[in-house]
Specification:
Radius of gyration: 20 Å
Helix content: 25-40%
Strand order of the largest sheet: 3-2-1-4-5-6-7-8-11-9-10
Distance between the termini: 54 Å
Structural class: alpha/beta
Number of domains: 2
Strand content: 25-35%
Protein name: Trk system potassium uptake protein TrkA
GO molecular function: potassium ion transmembrane transporter activity
Keywords: Ion transport, NAD, Potassium, Potassium transport, Transport
Order of helices and strands: EHEEHEHEEHEEEEEHH
Length: about 220
């Protein structure tokens, strides 16, 4: 898979290193000469250019990329790169970094963004995920379909503890994708039973999140 990363700072280089280790082809683009540190990621291709310019993206052959990652420290740049990648070059997957959570609402399909990653929001979500039981925590937002990756740790008092996955009437537009049980990561089947303390990961439409939380969490009448 060929991946172009706009922004060769610490974030961009870190992403590049991970992708290269997984066998992908990576191109790093940055307009600042001081950011071109070939020795730090020698396996990557490097391009000194402005990723907001069509001529630069032509030189990068963006049309050959499977994924573009807009990883600069400037939200305006990330939006422009995302829009150009999607509309001018038809890149199948565009991932954009959100630096200021106040700008998160802009990072959607209208700007060519398939997945928006907000570092401050993600860190906050991970803190919530570590300490919250029975509360739905949003980990990641997908632009297409207005869906989110959400997590809930099943409380002991939940009415669903001990219930088989296939027997649960899940809300529409939700999918249980993973059960984390201790150190195990389980791909759920209909026969698997939900246990108290399970970390449940769902892809769910935003409109269904409250319904999903109500289904999984402690019912007030049960907790009294």
């Amino acid at each position: 898979m060929r991946v172009a990363i706009a922004g060769a700072g610490a974030v961009g280089r870190s992403i590049a290193g991970e992708l290269l280790e997984n066998g992908h082809e990576v191109l790093l683009i940055d307009k600042a000469p001081t950011a071109i540190s070939v020795e730090r990621v020698p396996q990557a291709e490097w391009l000194l250019a402005d990723a907001c310019e069509i001529t630069s993206l032509d030189e990068a052959a963006l049309q050959r990329c499977n994924v573009v990652i807009a990883a600069t420290g400037d939200d305006k740049v990330n939006l422009v790169v995302s829009l150009l990648a999607k509309t001018e070059y038809g890149v199948p997957r565009v991932v954009a970094r959100v630096n200021n959570p106040k700008n998160e609402w802009l990072f959607n399909e209208s700007w060519g963004v398939d997945v928006a990653v907000s570092t401050p929001r993600l860190m906050s979500a991970l803190v919530e995920e570590a300490v919250s039981v029975g509360d739905l925590v949003r980990l990641l937002r997908f632009s297409h379909g207005d869906a989110n990756l959400v997590e809930l740790t099943l409380p002991e008092e939940s009415a669903l503890a001990g219930t088989q996955v296939g027997d649960v009437e899940w809300p529409q537009d939700t999918s249980l994708v993973t059960i984390i049980r201790g150190t195990r990561v389980l791909t759920p089947s209909r026969e698997d039973s939900l246990e108290a303390g399970d970390e449940l990961l769902f892809v769910a439409a935003q409109a269904r999140e409250e319904q999903l939380e109500d289904l999984l969490s402690v019912r007030r009448e049960d907790a009294s």
